[in-house]
User: Fold these one by one.
Assistant:
Number 1:
Amino acid sequence: MNLFDVKKYQVPDPKEVDMRETRKNFETFMSEYGAVREKIGKNRLPKMTQSFSPISATPQREYDGDAERFMIEREMYMPEFKELERIFIQGYYAISNPTRAGGTERRRQIFMLRYIYGVLVSDIEAQTYLGRTAVSEESKLGFIQFCNRTGLLITKEETQNLIETN
Protein backbone atom coordinates (compact mmCIF):
# COMPACT_ATOMS: atom_id res chain seq x y z
CA MET A 1 0.00 0.00 0.00
CA ASN A 2 1.38 3.40 -1.01
CA LEU A 3 1.08 6.25 1.44
CA PHE A 4 1.10 8.81 -1.35
CA ASP A 5 -0.67 8.37 -4.69
CA VAL A 6 1.61 10.14 -7.16
CA LYS A 7 -0.82 9.77 -10.08
CA LYS A 8 -3.39 11.86 -8.23
CA TYR A 9 -1.03 14.85 -8.18
CA GLN A 10 0.99 14.48 -11.38
CA VAL A 11 0.85 17.27 -13.90
CA PRO A 12 0.68 16.21 -17.55
CA ASP A 13 3.73 16.59 -19.74
CA PRO A 14 3.51 19.85 -21.73
CA LYS A 15 3.68 17.79 -24.95
CA GLU A 16 0.39 16.10 -23.97
CA VAL A 17 -1.49 19.39 -23.39
CA ASP A 18 -3.66 21.00 -26.03
CA MET A 19 -2.46 24.52 -25.30
CA ARG A 20 -4.92 26.20 -27.66
CA GLU A 21 -8.02 24.64 -26.07
CA THR A 22 -6.63 25.01 -22.55
CA ARG A 23 -5.93 28.68 -23.26
CA LYS A 24 -9.57 29.13 -24.37
CA ASN A 25 -10.77 27.62 -21.09
CA PHE A 26 -8.37 29.81 -19.13
CA GLU A 27 -9.51 32.97 -20.94
CA THR A 28 -13.16 32.10 -20.26
CA PHE A 29 -12.40 31.58 -16.57
CA MET A 30 -10.41 34.82 -16.31
CA SER A 31 -13.16 36.78 -18.12
CA GLU A 32 -15.77 35.58 -15.64
CA TYR A 33 -13.44 36.02 -12.67
CA GLY A 34 -12.63 39.57 -13.74
CA ALA A 35 -16.29 40.41 -14.33
CA VAL A 36 -17.41 39.20 -10.91
CA ARG A 37 -14.49 41.05 -9.26
CA GLU A 38 -15.76 44.26 -10.88
CA LYS A 39 -19.34 43.55 -9.79
CA ILE A 40 -18.29 43.55 -6.14
CA GLY A 41 -16.14 46.67 -6.56
CA LYS A 42 -12.65 45.18 -6.86
CA ASN A 43 -10.11 45.67 -9.62
CA ARG A 44 -10.62 43.34 -12.57
CA LEU A 45 -7.19 41.79 -12.11
CA PRO A 46 -6.17 40.39 -8.75
CA LYS A 47 -3.64 42.56 -6.96
CA MET A 48 -0.48 40.83 -5.95
CA THR A 49 1.79 41.78 -3.13
CA GLN A 50 5.40 42.65 -3.84
CA SER A 51 6.26 38.97 -3.45
CA PHE A 52 3.46 38.03 -5.91
CA SER A 53 1.35 36.45 -3.19
CA PRO A 54 -2.41 36.97 -3.43
CA ILE A 55 -2.59 37.34 0.36
CA SER A 56 -1.58 40.62 2.00
CA ALA A 57 0.91 40.45 4.85
CA THR A 58 -1.14 42.99 6.82
CA PRO A 59 -4.52 41.80 8.06
CA GLN A 60 -7.47 44.00 7.24
CA ARG A 61 -11.14 44.12 8.09
CA GLU A 62 -13.46 42.83 5.41
CA TYR A 63 -15.56 46.03 5.33
CA ASP A 64 -15.08 49.60 6.53
CA GLY A 65 -17.57 52.54 6.69
CA ASP A 66 -18.70 53.40 3.15
CA ALA A 67 -17.15 50.18 1.93
CA GLU A 68 -19.58 48.24 4.14
CA ARG A 69 -22.58 49.97 2.52
CA PHE A 70 -21.07 49.34 -0.90
CA MET A 71 -20.56 45.65 -0.10
CA ILE A 72 -24.15 45.26 1.11
CA GLU A 73 -25.34 46.62 -2.23
CA ARG A 74 -23.15 44.05 -4.01
CA GLU A 75 -23.97 41.13 -1.69
CA MET A 76 -25.79 39.14 -4.39
CA TYR A 77 -22.51 38.72 -6.30
CA MET A 78 -20.52 37.48 -3.30
CA PRO A 79 -21.24 33.72 -3.63
CA GLU A 80 -20.00 33.69 -7.23
CA PHE A 81 -17.01 35.84 -6.32
CA LYS A 82 -16.05 33.57 -3.41
CA GLU A 83 -16.31 30.48 -5.61
CA LEU A 84 -14.16 31.93 -8.41
CA GLU A 85 -11.70 33.44 -5.94
CA ARG A 86 -11.32 30.02 -4.27
CA ILE A 87 -10.66 28.41 -7.65
CA PHE A 88 -8.13 31.08 -8.61
CA ILE A 89 -6.25 30.71 -5.31
CA GLN A 90 -6.18 26.92 -5.63
CA GLY A 91 -4.71 27.26 -9.11
CA TYR A 92 -2.19 29.86 -7.98
CA TYR A 93 -0.96 27.75 -5.08
CA ALA A 94 -0.66 24.71 -7.36
CA ILE A 95 2.13 26.49 -9.24
CA SER A 96 5.42 25.26 -7.89
CA ASN A 97 8.99 24.45 -8.75
CA PRO A 98 10.36 22.43 -5.84
CA THR A 99 13.64 21.62 -7.58
CA ARG A 100 15.22 25.08 -7.16
CA ALA A 101 15.60 27.43 -4.25
CA GLY A 102 13.20 30.30 -4.93
CA GLY A 103 11.87 28.47 -7.98
CA THR A 104 8.26 28.43 -6.86
CA GLU A 105 8.12 32.18 -6.28
CA ARG A 106 9.83 32.83 -9.61
CA ARG A 107 7.43 30.55 -11.52
CA ARG A 108 4.41 32.17 -9.86
CA GLN A 109 5.77 35.64 -10.64
CA ILE A 110 6.37 34.79 -14.29
CA PHE A 111 2.92 33.16 -14.58
CA MET A 112 1.22 36.23 -13.10
CA LEU A 113 3.12 38.66 -15.29
CA ARG A 114 2.55 36.74 -18.51
CA TYR A 115 -0.90 35.22 -18.18
CA ILE A 116 -2.72 37.49 -15.74
CA TYR A 117 -1.21 40.91 -16.46
CA GLY A 118 -0.36 40.23 -20.13
CA VAL A 119 3.26 41.39 -19.94
CA LEU A 120 5.32 40.47 -23.01
CA VAL A 121 7.99 37.79 -22.72
CA SER A 122 10.68 40.32 -23.69
CA ASP A 123 9.60 42.64 -20.87
CA ILE A 124 9.58 39.77 -18.37
CA GLU A 125 13.09 38.89 -19.53
CA ALA A 126 14.24 42.40 -18.68
CA GLN A 127 12.50 42.39 -15.28
CA THR A 128 13.71 38.96 -14.17
CA TYR A 129 17.10 38.79 -15.93
CA LEU A 130 16.14 35.44 -17.44
CA GLY A 131 16.48 34.38 -21.06
CA ARG A 132 13.56 34.06 -23.44
CA THR A 133 13.59 30.26 -23.25
CA ALA A 134 13.55 30.24 -19.44
CA VAL A 135 10.67 32.73 -19.29
CA SER A 136 8.67 30.76 -21.88
CA GLU A 137 9.29 27.42 -20.13
CA GLU A 138 8.56 28.70 -16.63
CA SER A 139 5.38 30.49 -17.70
CA LYS A 140 4.17 27.47 -19.67
CA LEU A 141 4.77 25.09 -16.75
CA GLY A 142 3.06 27.49 -14.34
CA PHE A 143 0.12 27.81 -16.74
CA ILE A 144 -0.21 24.01 -17.01
CA GLN A 145 -0.03 23.60 -13.23
CA PHE A 146 -2.69 26.30 -12.71
CA CYS A 147 -5.01 24.87 -15.35
CA ASN A 148 -4.53 21.31 -14.18
CA ARG A 149 -5.55 22.17 -10.61
CA THR A 150 -8.54 24.26 -11.67
CA GLY A 151 -9.90 21.72 -14.17
CA LEU A 152 -9.27 23.97 -17.18
CA LEU A 153 -6.62 21.75 -18.76
CA ILE A 154 -7.41 19.87 -22.00
CA THR A 155 -5.08 17.15 -23.21
CA LYS A 156 -4.41 16.40 -26.86
CA GLU A 157 -5.91 12.95 -26.26
CA GLU A 158 -9.21 14.54 -25.17
CA THR A 159 -9.22 16.76 -28.25
CA GLN A 160 -8.46 13.78 -30.50
CA ASN A 161 -11.32 11.77 -28.95
CA LEU A 162 -13.72 14.64 -29.70
CA ILE A 163 -12.56 14.80 -33.31
CA GLU A 164 -12.92 11.05 -33.78
CA THR A 165 -16.49 10.96 -32.38
CA ASN A 166 -17.61 13.69 -34.80
Number 2:
Amino acid sequence: MDVNEFKSRLVSTISEQGAGCAALFEDSCTAELKGGSLVFREVFGSGGVYRPGDEFAIEDVWEDRKAELVAWFDDPDFCVGLSAVGGNMQG
Protein backbone atom coordinates (compact mmCIF):
# COMPACT_ATOMS: atom_id res chain seq x y z
CA MET A 1 0.00 0.00 0.00
CA ASP A 2 1.32 3.44 -0.84
CA VAL A 3 0.50 6.65 1.03
CA ASN A 4 -2.28 7.66 -1.37
CA GLU A 5 -4.00 4.27 -1.06
CA PHE A 6 -3.66 4.55 2.71
CA LYS A 7 -5.25 7.99 2.78
CA SER A 8 -8.10 6.94 0.49
CA ARG A 9 -8.90 3.88 2.60
CA LEU A 10 -8.64 5.94 5.78
CA VAL A 11 -11.11 8.55 4.50
CA SER A 12 -13.61 5.77 3.78
CA THR A 13 -13.08 4.13 7.17
CA ILE A 14 -13.43 7.37 9.14
CA SER A 15 -16.48 8.42 7.10
CA GLU A 16 -18.22 5.17 8.03
CA GLN A 17 -17.84 6.04 11.73
CA GLY A 18 -19.76 9.30 11.49
CA ALA A 19 -19.13 12.97 12.08
CA GLY A 20 -16.63 13.94 14.76
CA CYS A 21 -14.83 10.61 14.79
CA ALA A 22 -11.05 10.34 14.41
CA ALA A 23 -8.73 7.40 13.83
CA LEU A 24 -6.39 6.83 16.78
CA PHE A 25 -2.99 5.31 16.00
CA GLU A 26 -1.10 3.72 18.92
CA ASP A 27 -2.01 6.57 21.30
CA SER A 28 0.44 8.76 19.38
CA CYS A 29 -1.49 10.44 16.57
CA THR A 30 -4.93 10.86 15.11
CA ALA A 31 -6.43 11.42 11.69
CA GLU A 32 -9.75 13.15 11.21
CA LEU A 33 -11.73 14.71 8.42
CA LYS A 34 -12.00 18.48 8.36
CA GLY A 35 -13.79 19.98 5.42
CA GLY A 36 -13.35 16.74 3.49
CA SER A 37 -9.56 16.68 3.99
CA LEU A 38 -7.56 14.38 6.24
CA VAL A 39 -5.79 16.12 9.10
CA PHE A 40 -3.10 14.23 11.00
CA ARG A 41 -2.17 15.39 14.50
CA GLU A 42 0.15 14.20 17.23
CA VAL A 43 -1.58 13.43 20.52
CA PHE A 44 -0.39 12.99 24.06
CA GLY A 45 -2.08 11.02 26.81
CA SER A 46 -3.56 7.61 27.44
CA GLY A 47 -6.47 5.89 29.08
CA GLY A 48 -9.01 7.49 26.80
CA VAL A 49 -8.09 11.17 27.31
CA TYR A 50 -5.76 12.78 24.80
CA ARG A 51 -4.31 16.26 24.49
CA PRO A 52 -3.74 17.47 20.92
CA GLY A 53 -0.31 18.23 19.56
CA ASP A 54 0.86 19.60 16.25
CA GLU A 55 -0.60 18.79 12.86
CA PHE A 56 1.75 17.06 10.41
CA ALA A 57 1.83 15.77 6.85
CA ILE A 58 1.54 11.99 6.72
CA GLU A 59 4.02 11.96 3.85
CA ASP A 60 6.69 13.24 6.28
CA VAL A 61 6.44 10.11 8.46
CA TRP A 62 5.19 7.53 5.97
CA GLU A 63 8.43 5.60 5.45
CA ASP A 64 9.20 5.40 9.18
CA ARG A 65 5.67 4.52 10.32
CA LYS A 66 4.19 2.72 7.31
CA ALA A 67 4.00 -0.72 8.95
CA GLU A 68 2.23 0.63 12.06
CA LEU A 69 -0.17 2.78 10.07
CA VAL A 70 -1.16 0.05 7.61
CA ALA A 71 -1.55 -2.51 10.42
CA TRP A 72 -4.10 -0.19 12.06
CA PHE A 73 -6.72 -1.42 9.57
CA ASP A 74 -6.47 -4.91 11.13
CA ASP A 75 -7.74 -3.59 14.49
CA PRO A 76 -8.89 0.02 14.05
CA ASP A 77 -9.26 2.30 17.05
CA PHE A 78 -11.22 5.56 17.12
CA CYS A 79 -11.71 8.56 19.35
CA VAL A 80 -13.81 11.69 19.34
CA GLY A 81 -11.86 14.13 17.19
CA LEU A 82 -10.44 17.46 18.30
CA SER A 83 -12.83 19.48 16.14
CA ALA A 84 -15.81 17.74 17.78
CA VAL A 85 -14.83 18.52 21.38
CA GLY A 86 -12.84 21.73 21.03
CA GLY A 87 -9.92 20.76 23.23
CA ASN A 88 -9.15 17.33 24.60
CA MET A 89 -10.04 14.20 22.68
CA GLN A 90 -11.68 11.17 24.19
CA GLY A 91 -11.15 7.57 23.13
Number 3:
Amino acid sequence: MAPFAVVVLMYKVDASFPIALLTVAGSVGQIIMPHIYRILLDDFHWSGVFIILAGIALQGFPCGILIHYSKDVVDRSGENNVTSAIFDRKLCMDRVVWLYLLNIILIVSTANFEMWFLVDQMSSLGYTYVFGTALISVIGFANLVGRLLGSIVKLKTKSFPAVYNMLYTCPVLAVGHSLFILLQTLDKWMYVACAVHGFAFGLMNVFLPVIMYEFVDNENFQQAVSFLNMAYGVGNLLSNYVGGSLRDLYGDYDLTYEVGIVVSILVTLGLIIIACIMRKRERAKLCLIHQHVLLSSQYKSID
Protein backbone atom coordinates (compact mmCIF):
# COMPACT_ATOMS: atom_id res chain seq x y z
CA MET A 1 0.00 0.00 0.00
CA ALA A 2 2.91 2.38 0.71
CA PRO A 3 4.00 2.77 -2.95
CA PHE A 4 0.45 3.74 -3.93
CA ALA A 5 0.37 6.34 -1.15
CA VAL A 6 3.63 7.85 -2.39
CA VAL A 7 2.33 8.00 -5.97
CA VAL A 8 -0.77 9.90 -4.81
CA LEU A 9 1.45 12.41 -2.97
CA MET A 10 3.65 12.96 -6.02
CA TYR A 11 1.00 13.17 -8.73
CA LYS A 12 -1.84 15.46 -7.69
CA VAL A 13 -3.70 15.73 -11.01
CA ASP A 14 -3.71 12.35 -12.75
CA ALA A 15 -1.94 9.40 -11.13
CA SER A 16 -3.52 6.68 -13.28
CA PHE A 17 -0.42 6.03 -15.42
CA PRO A 18 2.08 6.02 -12.48
CA ILE A 19 -0.22 3.62 -10.63
CA ALA A 20 -0.33 1.36 -13.68
CA LEU A 21 3.46 1.50 -14.07
CA LEU A 22 3.90 0.74 -10.37
CA THR A 23 2.37 -2.70 -10.88
CA VAL A 24 5.18 -3.73 -13.25
CA ALA A 25 7.65 -4.40 -10.42
CA GLY A 26 5.72 -7.39 -9.08
CA SER A 27 5.96 -9.29 -12.36
CA VAL A 28 9.77 -8.98 -12.37
CA GLY A 29 9.83 -10.82 -9.07
CA GLN A 30 7.50 -13.47 -10.45
CA ILE A 31 10.03 -14.26 -13.19
CA ILE A 32 13.05 -14.46 -10.91
CA MET A 33 11.73 -15.85 -7.62
CA PRO A 34 10.68 -19.39 -8.73
CA HIS A 35 14.27 -20.12 -9.78
CA ILE A 36 15.61 -18.59 -6.58
CA TYR A 37 13.22 -20.75 -4.55
CA ARG A 38 14.41 -23.88 -6.37
CA ILE A 39 18.10 -23.03 -5.83
CA LEU A 40 17.56 -22.19 -2.16
CA LEU A 41 15.62 -25.41 -1.57
CA ASP A 42 18.48 -27.46 -2.98
CA ASP A 43 21.00 -25.84 -0.63
CA PHE A 44 19.10 -24.81 2.51
CA HIS A 45 15.87 -26.88 2.63
CA TRP A 46 12.58 -25.42 3.84
CA SER A 47 13.70 -24.01 7.19
CA GLY A 48 16.64 -22.16 5.68
CA VAL A 49 14.56 -20.85 2.79
CA PHE A 50 12.01 -19.27 5.13
CA ILE A 51 14.76 -17.59 7.16
CA ILE A 52 16.28 -16.13 3.98
CA LEU A 53 12.88 -14.96 2.75
CA ALA A 54 12.25 -13.29 6.11
CA GLY A 55 15.53 -11.42 5.71
CA ILE A 56 14.53 -10.30 2.21
CA ALA A 57 11.17 -9.06 3.49
CA LEU A 58 12.90 -7.02 6.20
CA GLN A 59 14.60 -4.96 3.49
CA GLY A 60 11.29 -3.15 3.16
CA PHE A 61 11.77 -1.59 6.60
CA PRO A 62 14.47 0.95 5.62
CA CYS A 63 12.49 1.71 2.47
CA GLY A 64 9.48 2.58 4.61
CA ILE A 65 11.61 4.83 6.82
CA LEU A 66 12.91 6.61 3.73
CA ILE A 67 9.39 7.15 2.38
CA HIS A 68 8.14 8.45 5.73
CA TYR A 69 10.87 11.07 6.11
CA SER A 70 10.72 12.08 2.43
CA LYS A 71 7.06 13.11 2.39
CA ASP A 72 7.91 16.81 2.92
CA VAL A 73 10.32 16.68 0.00
CA VAL A 74 7.80 14.93 -2.23
CA ASP A 75 4.91 17.29 -1.43
CA ARG A 76 6.53 20.71 -1.64
CA SER A 77 3.27 22.56 -2.11
CA GLY A 78 2.38 22.14 1.54
CA GLU A 79 -1.10 21.10 0.46
CA ASN A 80 -2.39 17.64 1.15
CA ASN A 81 -5.77 16.81 -0.30
CA VAL A 82 -5.63 13.24 0.91
CA THR A 83 -8.07 12.67 3.71
CA SER A 84 -6.64 11.35 6.98
CA ALA A 85 -9.82 9.58 8.06
CA ILE A 86 -9.55 5.84 8.51
CA PHE A 87 -12.87 5.25 6.77
CA ASP A 88 -14.63 7.66 4.50
CA ARG A 89 -18.39 7.37 4.96
CA LYS A 90 -19.17 8.18 1.34
CA LEU A 91 -16.73 5.55 0.14
CA CYS A 92 -18.06 2.92 2.53
CA MET A 93 -21.66 3.57 1.49
CA ASP A 94 -20.96 3.44 -2.24
CA ARG A 95 -22.61 0.30 -3.62
CA VAL A 96 -20.54 0.44 -6.80
CA VAL A 97 -17.33 0.21 -4.76
CA TRP A 98 -18.61 -2.87 -2.93
CA LEU A 99 -19.77 -4.46 -6.17
CA TYR A 100 -16.33 -3.79 -7.61
CA LEU A 101 -14.61 -5.30 -4.57
CA LEU A 102 -16.76 -8.42 -4.93
CA ASN A 103 -15.67 -8.73 -8.55
CA ILE A 104 -12.04 -8.32 -7.50
CA ILE A 105 -12.35 -11.13 -4.96
CA LEU A 106 -13.88 -13.40 -7.58
CA ILE A 107 -11.37 -12.69 -10.35
CA VAL A 108 -8.30 -12.76 -8.09
CA SER A 109 -9.35 -16.01 -6.44
CA THR A 110 -9.54 -17.75 -9.83
CA ALA A 111 -6.84 -15.96 -11.85
CA ASN A 112 -4.24 -17.24 -9.36
CA PHE A 113 -5.10 -20.91 -9.87
CA GLU A 114 -2.30 -21.45 -12.37
CA MET A 115 0.36 -19.78 -10.22
CA TRP A 116 -0.62 -21.88 -7.20
CA PHE A 117 -1.09 -25.28 -8.81
CA LEU A 118 0.72 -25.45 -12.17
CA VAL A 119 3.84 -27.17 -10.83
CA ASP A 120 1.74 -29.80 -9.04
CA GLN A 121 -0.42 -30.25 -12.13
CA MET A 122 2.61 -30.88 -14.34
CA SER A 123 4.23 -33.26 -11.85
CA SER A 124 0.99 -35.26 -11.58
CA LEU A 125 1.09 -35.67 -15.37
CA GLY A 126 4.63 -37.04 -15.26
CA TYR A 127 6.62 -33.89 -15.95
CA THR A 128 9.50 -32.69 -13.78
CA TYR A 129 9.38 -29.88 -11.25
CA VAL A 130 11.95 -28.06 -13.38
CA PHE A 131 9.49 -28.00 -16.28
CA GLY A 132 6.73 -26.72 -14.03
CA THR A 133 9.01 -24.00 -12.69
CA ALA A 134 9.90 -22.99 -16.26
CA LEU A 135 6.19 -22.65 -17.07
CA ILE A 136 5.71 -20.40 -14.04
CA SER A 137 8.54 -18.22 -15.34
CA VAL A 138 6.82 -17.99 -18.72
CA ILE A 139 3.68 -16.79 -16.93
CA GLY A 140 5.84 -14.26 -15.08
CA PHE A 141 7.45 -12.97 -18.29
CA ALA A 142 4.08 -12.70 -20.05
CA ASN A 143 2.76 -11.01 -16.93
CA LEU A 144 5.54 -8.43 -17.24
CA VAL A 145 4.70 -7.83 -20.92
CA GLY A 146 1.01 -7.45 -20.04
CA ARG A 147 1.74 -4.93 -17.30
CA LEU A 148 4.05 -2.92 -19.52
CA LEU A 149 1.55 -2.89 -22.37
CA GLY A 150 -1.30 -2.06 -19.99
CA SER A 151 0.71 0.88 -18.62
CA ILE A 152 1.36 2.14 -22.15
CA VAL A 153 -2.33 1.78 -23.02
CA LYS A 154 -3.26 3.84 -19.98
CA LEU A 155 -0.65 6.47 -20.87
CA LYS A 156 -1.98 6.82 -24.40
CA THR A 157 -5.67 6.72 -23.42
CA LYS A 158 -5.85 8.68 -20.17
CA SER A 159 -9.43 9.81 -20.81
CA PHE A 160 -10.59 6.26 -21.57
CA PRO A 161 -11.97 4.61 -18.37
CA ALA A 162 -9.92 1.61 -17.29
CA VAL A 163 -13.07 -0.39 -16.53
CA TYR A 164 -13.62 -0.74 -20.27
CA ASN A 165 -10.19 -2.34 -20.62
CA MET A 166 -11.22 -5.04 -18.16
CA LEU A 167 -14.10 -6.00 -20.45
CA TYR A 168 -11.65 -7.67 -22.83
CA THR A 169 -9.12 -8.71 -20.18
CA CYS A 170 -11.52 -11.05 -18.35
CA PRO A 171 -12.50 -13.02 -21.50
CA VAL A 172 -8.81 -13.48 -22.31
CA LEU A 173 -8.35 -14.87 -18.79
CA ALA A 174 -11.18 -17.31 -19.53
CA VAL A 175 -9.38 -18.39 -22.71
CA GLY A 176 -6.20 -18.89 -20.69
CA HIS A 177 -8.00 -21.16 -18.20
CA SER A 178 -9.44 -23.23 -21.05
CA LEU A 179 -6.00 -23.65 -22.67
CA PHE A 180 -4.63 -25.19 -19.47
CA ILE A 181 -7.31 -27.86 -19.80
CA LEU A 182 -6.95 -28.47 -23.54
CA LEU A 183 -3.15 -28.35 -23.81
CA GLN A 184 -2.02 -29.90 -20.50
CA THR A 185 -0.66 -33.07 -22.17
CA LEU A 186 1.17 -31.13 -24.90
CA ASP A 187 4.32 -29.88 -23.23
CA LYS A 188 5.42 -27.37 -25.89
CA TRP A 189 1.94 -25.92 -26.31
CA MET A 190 1.73 -25.35 -22.57
CA TYR A 191 4.10 -22.45 -23.10
CA VAL A 192 1.40 -20.86 -25.26
CA ALA A 193 -1.20 -21.38 -22.54
CA CYS A 194 1.14 -19.80 -19.99
CA ALA A 195 1.83 -16.84 -22.29
CA VAL A 196 -1.87 -16.15 -22.87
CA HIS A 197 -2.80 -16.43 -19.22
CA GLY A 198 0.21 -14.47 -17.97
CA PHE A 199 -0.45 -11.64 -20.43
CA ALA A 200 -4.09 -11.32 -19.33
CA PHE A 201 -3.05 -11.60 -15.69
CA GLY A 202 -0.65 -8.70 -16.18
CA LEU A 203 -3.33 -6.54 -17.78
CA MET A 204 -5.68 -7.35 -14.92
CA ASN A 205 -3.16 -6.27 -12.28
CA VAL A 206 -2.61 -2.97 -14.09
CA PHE A 207 -6.25 -2.02 -14.55
CA LEU A 208 -7.71 -3.08 -11.18
CA PRO A 209 -5.99 -0.39 -9.05
CA VAL A 210 -6.45 2.20 -11.80
CA ILE A 211 -10.20 1.56 -11.83
CA MET A 212 -10.32 2.12 -8.08
CA TYR A 213 -8.37 5.36 -8.50
CA GLU A 214 -10.82 6.54 -11.15
CA PHE A 215 -13.68 5.83 -8.75
CA VAL A 216 -12.37 8.09 -5.99
CA ASP A 217 -9.50 10.23 -7.43
CA ASN A 218 -6.73 11.44 -5.12
CA GLU A 219 -8.81 12.47 -2.13
CA ASN A 220 -9.83 9.05 -0.82
CA PHE A 221 -7.44 6.84 -2.75
CA GLN A 222 -5.45 5.62 0.27
CA GLN A 223 -8.63 4.38 1.94
CA ALA A 224 -9.74 2.85 -1.36
CA VAL A 225 -6.42 1.04 -1.72
CA SER A 226 -6.88 -0.46 1.74
CA PHE A 227 -10.17 -1.94 0.51
CA LEU A 228 -8.42 -3.08 -2.66
CA ASN A 229 -5.68 -4.85 -0.70
CA MET A 230 -8.32 -6.47 1.52
CA ALA A 231 -10.10 -7.81 -1.58
CA TYR A 232 -6.81 -9.12 -2.96
CA GLY A 233 -6.07 -10.84 0.34
CA VAL A 234 -9.47 -12.53 0.49
CA GLY A 235 -9.12 -13.60 -3.15
CA ASN A 236 -5.68 -15.12 -2.58
CA LEU A 237 -6.94 -16.93 0.52
CA LEU A 238 -9.86 -18.42 -1.37
CA SER A 239 -7.72 -19.29 -4.38
CA ASN A 240 -5.53 -21.94 -2.79
CA TYR A 241 -8.36 -23.32 -0.64
CA VAL A 242 -10.90 -23.67 -3.47
CA GLY A 243 -8.40 -24.92 -6.03
CA GLY A 244 -6.80 -27.41 -3.64
CA SER A 245 -10.18 -28.70 -2.41
CA LEU A 246 -11.39 -29.31 -5.96
CA ARG A 247 -8.14 -31.12 -6.76
CA ASP A 248 -8.54 -33.35 -3.70
CA LEU A 249 -12.17 -34.15 -4.54
CA TYR A 250 -11.84 -34.88 -8.27
CA GLY A 251 -8.18 -35.87 -8.67
CA ASP A 252 -7.22 -33.23 -11.26
CA TYR A 253 -7.42 -29.52 -11.94
CA ASP A 254 -9.89 -29.54 -14.83
CA LEU A 255 -12.87 -28.48 -12.69
CA THR A 256 -10.69 -25.85 -10.99
CA TYR A 257 -9.96 -24.18 -14.32
CA GLU A 258 -13.58 -24.56 -15.42
CA VAL A 259 -14.60 -22.60 -12.33
CA GLY A 260 -12.09 -19.96 -13.44
CA ILE A 261 -13.74 -19.77 -16.87
CA VAL A 262 -17.21 -19.30 -15.39
CA VAL A 263 -16.03 -16.69 -12.89
CA SER A 264 -14.22 -14.71 -15.61
CA ILE A 265 -17.46 -14.51 -17.60
CA LEU A 266 -19.48 -13.51 -14.52
CA VAL A 267 -16.97 -10.80 -13.62
CA THR A 268 -17.19 -9.45 -17.17
CA LEU A 269 -20.94 -9.09 -16.74
CA GLY A 270 -20.44 -7.43 -13.34
CA LEU A 271 -17.98 -4.95 -14.84
CA ILE A 272 -20.45 -4.11 -17.60
CA ILE A 273 -22.97 -3.16 -14.90
CA ILE A 274 -20.34 -1.07 -13.12
CA ALA A 275 -19.33 0.64 -16.37
CA CYS A 276 -22.96 1.55 -17.10
CA ILE A 277 -23.44 3.00 -13.60
CA MET A 278 -20.22 4.99 -13.80
CA ARG A 279 -21.14 6.34 -17.22
CA LYS A 280 -24.52 7.44 -15.87
CA ARG A 281 -22.82 9.16 -12.92
CA GLU A 282 -20.37 10.91 -15.23
CA ARG A 283 -23.20 12.21 -17.40
CA ALA A 284 -25.02 13.52 -14.32
CA LYS A 285 -21.82 15.21 -13.14
CA LEU A 286 -21.32 16.86 -16.54
CA CYS A 287 -24.93 18.09 -16.51
CA LEU A 288 -24.40 19.71 -13.10
CA ILE A 289 -21.22 21.39 -14.31
CA HIS A 290 -23.00 22.62 -17.44
CA GLN A 291 -25.84 24.04 -15.36
CA HIS A 292 -23.36 25.78 -13.05
CA VAL A 293 -21.58 27.34 -16.03
CA LEU A 294 -24.89 28.59 -17.46
CA LEU A 295 -25.91 30.15 -14.14
CA SER A 296 -22.51 31.80 -13.76
CA SER A 297 -22.72 33.25 -17.26
CA GLN A 298 -26.21 34.64 -16.55
CA TYR A 299 -25.01 36.39 -13.39
CA LYS A 300 -22.08 37.89 -15.26
CA SER A 301 -24.36 39.16 -18.03
CA ILE A 302 -26.61 40.86 -15.43
CA ASP A 303 -23.60 42.56 -13.85
